[in-house]
Batch of 3 targets.
Target 1
Amino acid sequence: SQKIEQNSEALNIQEGKTATLTCNYTNYSPAYLQWYRQDPGRGPVFLLLIRENEKEKRKERLKVTFDTTLKQSLFHITASQPADSATYLCALWGGNALNFGKGTSLLVTP
Amino acid sequence: DAGVIQSPRHEVTEMGQEVTLRCKPISGHDYLFWYRQTMMRGLELLIYFNNNVPIDDSGMPEDRFSAKMPNASFSTLKIQPSEPRDSAVYFCASRDRDRGDEQYFGPGTRLTVT
């Protein structure tokens, strides 16, 4: 069966450090992968999309990598700030739907 | 643009009652999605529409759930009769295919069925 796995344990890091979140998937051949941010009580907000022929994509302090051999995406936030604290979801297109992982909670402490 | 609008934001109802959730997508978007989010199961797609036509409703849990999109600016998700296990946050999202693959989510409706 298709699975999208994100670390269920919260990630706690100190302000200024780089946060790295992992998304692993099985039984998908995605044309692209997306990352979303979700704050408590709000809907997910789109951050980045990376296509299967792209190894890396950057947007400001965010960097996403996509390894279709390892079936893994890494999401990095450099120079993290307390305002980056949120849950981050990865999503893959499979069949007729965009399927989401359960997300990883990130807490950045001053 | 006001973004995706959902109402109500919170709904508390008793088991057996009918519940109707409402969504107004971003103007010009041609796709509309209904999701349900719980701690146990995460974010699950229930149904989606393209140009007001239902394309895939395989995620709708059972016949108690129904969704309509009578025009490009309005959609409803109805649960009748509601059950405690339907308690969740329901999100509506829209997408403009011509502008990319990202989806824009509404603020959600938190449903509690007692």
Note: The interface with chain A takes residues 4, 33, 42-43, 45, 48, 55-56, 58-59, 91, 93, 100-108 of chain B (CB under 8 Å).
Target 2
Amino acid sequence: KAGVTQTPRYLIKTRGQQVTLSCSPISGHRSVSWYQQTPGQGLQFLFEYFSETQRNKGNFPGRFSGRQFSNSRSEMNVSTLELGDSALYLCASSRTENYGYTFGSGTRLTVV
Amino acid sequence: GDSVTQMEGPVTLSEEAFLTINCTYTATGYPSLFWYVQYPGEGLQLLLKATKADDKGSNKGFEATYRKETTSFHLEKGSVQVSDSAVYFCALSDRQGNNRLAFGKGNQVVVIP
């Protein structure tokens, strides 16, 4: 069965621009979470969506936002990009928290 | 808040050696515990999990036991291979309605032939 699909794999953006990343979860998974991975801060939780509603949010500024569509696909948006936003952005989907989370391969965002 | 602590620094060992990566956690309630592995240029893969005290998760020769009394979930493998070279992350989910993972910093494992 298909895994979690993230697009694009790589992005290069300029400071001040905005970016939208996409995530298609495994079929039947209604929960989609986003994480930011950097060498300095490690893996940090951004937000989680379930049935088109944001259920949890991490400690990130309002420039980071997301949404989930009725087919469970999710997007995250980062506005007014800063150099420090350069990171690997990972999406994960799950049925329940106890079941385990399946991660996509990530989108590597570079801000120049 | 909930947190996970992994031992500092990379781990370098020879093929067929015994691997241990320590993981301890702090959480209210009874979290679910996970080990994830990340190969270069890829996302995270779930390696094993345990959802209650004394559960043992196992997969591909790796094992970890949920120890509530020591709040630990150490990862072990009896005989590593070069293909086990990767970064290993310990994580917890608090199951208190917060469907999020808290990760440790990760350990780079390098297996030398």
Note: The radius of gyration of chain B is 14 Å.
Target 3
Amino acid sequence: RKEVEQDPGPFNVPEGATVAFNCTYSNSASQSFFWYRQDCRKEPKLLMSVYSSGNEDGRFTAQLNRASQYISLLIRDSKLSDSATYLCVTAGSNYQLIWGAGTKLIIKP
Amino acid sequence: DAGITQSPRHKVTETGTPVTLRCHQTENHRYMYWYRQDPGHGLRLIHYSYGVKDTDKGEVSDGYSVSRSKTEDFLLTLESATSSQTSVYFCAISEVGQTSYEQYFGPGTRLTVT
């Protein structure tokens, strides 16, 4: 079992719709969680950290479910510019990050 | 954007040849990382550095070595390139080593080993 698992997609979503995807992790001791965004052939960039209480940043909402060991990302009113691959990241051992392979999102006009 | 550059940006090399990739930062961050990214896999850590001349192995360090003689430069060397090392290599930096802190990435180097 991979330490961080994501549905690779692609998720094809019409512009303006709401989309959500989850990521499961195996390290129950992990304390840090993130969503990074990666555009095609570009470097990853931090989208948002995920806090225990959940957090929201504009159209983006991240949630953490420790009991079931997953984090989620919800995007409301999706824009064409949201098309990207979303990478789920958790803390591993020795201060290293463990990365999921990503979920590809395609927003269609 | 964080000041991180990687060179070269693209390279094609033959099996068995040595290859060195360079990461240069202007942010004066203490921590630097080398990752590789392959289809179907998340980013995988190769080596990281927590200061000048201080480095440690990551998850997939076999076949790779690193050096950091200055704060701003972190070099990744493939002593004898193999086709399995064909990948996209990303350098990253962070101000603090703990995982709660953001990592900033360079633009990547696409390496093809024929």
Note: The two ends of chain B are 34 Å apart (CA to CA).
